Amino acid sequence: MSENEIFVPIWHKELLSVLEASALFNIGQNRLRLLASEDDGELVLRVGQRILFKKDKLKKYLTDEYSI
What residue spans of the chain are helical by DSSP H? Predict the structure, then answer.
C-alpha cells in the first residue's frame, strides 16, 4: 500500500463494492451483480459505472430472504 492510500476496515464501511460484499457475505460476484441489476435503489448506490451496496440494507435483505 502506498503512502497516499487510506485503508478503511470493511466493518467500518457503510458502502461495499461488489468484491467486498462478495467476501463479507460469501455470495458470488455474478449473483450480486444480478441482484444489483434488479434493484430499484433500495440496496445499491450507483456512482457512474460503479456498484456500491448499502451494507446494512443488504444484510437485512439477506436475513429476510430464503434464497437468492
Answer: 18-25, 29-38, 55-64
